[in-house]
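Quick one:
INPUT:
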């Protein structure tokens, strides 16, 4: 699972809400909205609310200029995914198939 796609040739970074809306835990709209808000808190990023289910983009230059802030957003994303995975019910049938 990934939150962004980087296109160096066109100089854009897409936030892939369109794909995230089908993948837990980001199938939950408030969590996608929280991700959007975190990106929008970075100077130079202005993702439109109307694009919460699409693939809005921002300039790659913003990524270069605000790498630490974007890294914090991406670390939050990874934390949310890991937390959701840890909370997922243990499936004993799957565990037996592995061993």
């Amino acid at each position: 699972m990934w939150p962004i796609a980087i296109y160096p040739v066109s100089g854009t970074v897409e936030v892939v809400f369109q794909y995230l809306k089908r993948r837990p835990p980001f199938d939950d709209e408030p969590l996608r909205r929280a991700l959007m808000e975190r990106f929008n808190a970075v100077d130079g990023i202005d993702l439109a609310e109307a694009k919460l289910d699409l693939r809005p983009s921002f300039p790659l230059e913003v990524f270069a200029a605000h790498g630490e802030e974007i890294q914090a957003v991406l670390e939050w994303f990874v934390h949310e995914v890991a937390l959701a995975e840890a909370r997922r019910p243990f499936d004993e049938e799957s565990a037996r198939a592995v061993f």
